[in-house]
Amino acid sequence: MALDYTNCNLCGRYCNINRYEKAGYCKTTDRLIISSYLLHFGEEPPISGANGSGTIFFSGCSLGCAFCQNYQISAELEGNSYNIEQLAEMFIKLQNQQAHNINLVTPTHFTPSIKKAFYLVKNKGFFLPIVYNSSGFDSPENLKFIDEIVDIYLPDFKFIDSELSKRYCNAENYPDIAKKNMEIMIKSKGLLKLENDIAKSGVLIRHLVMPNAIENTIEILEYLRVNFGNDIYMSIMSQYAPRYKSKKYNEINRGLKKKEYDIVMNYLIKYDMDNVYVQELMSNEIFFPDFQKDEPFEQN
After folding, report:
1. DSSP element (H, E) containing 94
2. With contact defined as beta carbons under 8 Å apart, do 272 and 230 qualify?
3. Which DSSP string corresponds to 155-206?
4. Distance (Å, rounded) from C-alpha 247 to C-alpha 251?
5. What is the DSSP secondary-structure string of 26-50?
6. Which of 139, 158, 153 is nearest to 25 (CA)?
């Protein structure tokens, strides 16, 4: 199956816009916009490892969460324009820097270009695993289209409650799309497989715990446990802080409370879900990258 930017159906919006002529819901045309590419040490341990994850941050986004921590690139399109050959060069440069993988962040709306770039370097000594780091909102057709070049899926599973996804992302169909995509990913790649503590293939599902939405989190955990087993690999993130348009929603205009996060941790303990990476709940101000800097993760 071949997909391109004509009548674009790469994400769950199915907007059918010809992105060769104008921007889609993701705010981008067929022209690649990339904010930065670098060795990233802030991902989960099996992704970052000791050498760092060769991370490429694509600008634009088809989901558009009101609380997005990376809104500078997802909504404000901070970044520069590149062609497919330049993207391919990034793969090689990051490999030469000893990256453990190529980590494609928010890639959904650029998969036709990404796939072409991969095949430009496939027979030129490129060997790193490809990490597909997405919002979970690909159209299932797009996921099947990109699957042949992906080794590791690193999707978000944000909402199983359609009222929440409609309120914060204008995407009432997000839960149905995300469920279908989790099935496709796990059927294709299986559980996460590690060599010397570094991920080589499989699926690691992320979930950001949000204030006043603990039932949503527990329902996601229950869905994944019942459908895919206690051994599923997950990353439970406590780093939520009000960002972007969060102030418009009183219920999420604060950080996570300890009693909320404890409910989630107790669920994991109760069902012996051992393959779960968790963050400590931080009471101090959470550090967020600044994509207007040359080094977005450099703290002052």
Report:
1. helix 84-96
2. yes
3. -B---S-HHHHHHHHS-TTHHHHHHHHHHHHHHHH-B-EEETTEEEEEE-EE
4. 9
5. TS--SSEEEEEEEEE--S-HHHHTT
6. 139
R_g of the chain computed on alpha carbons: 18
Residue 102 lies in a domain: yes
Domain that holds residue 83: 32-278
What value does the mean pLDDT take over residues 252-266? Answer: 96
Domain assignment present for 114:
yes
Grade residue 288 by pLDDT with cuts at 50, 70 and 90.
Answer: confident
User: What CATH number is attached to the domain comprising 41?
Assistant: 3.20.20.70
- Whether residue 299 is contained in a domain is answered as no
262: CB partners within 8 A, 6+ apart: none
Q: Tokens in use for 196?
A: 């010397």
Segment 36-64, tens digit of pLDDT = 999 999 999 999 999 999 999 999 999 99
* Rounded Cα gap, residues 77 and 28, in angstroms: 8
- Band of pLDDT at residue 287, cut at 50, 70 and 90: low
Instruction: Tell me how many domains the chain contains.
Output: 1
Given a contact cutoff of 8 angstroms between Cβ atoms, the answer to whether 256 and 213 are in contact is no
CA 166 – CA 213 distance, rounded (Å): 14
Tokens of 264: 């989630």
Q: Are 144 and 45 in contact (CB under 8 A)?
A: no
Joined tokens for residue 145: 């289209």
What gap in Å lies between CA 286 and CA 297, rounded to an integer?
A: 12
Residue 178 in any domain: the answer is yes
Contacts for 250 with CB less than 8 Å, ≥ 6 apart = none
Integer Cα distance of 80 and 6 in angstroms: 23
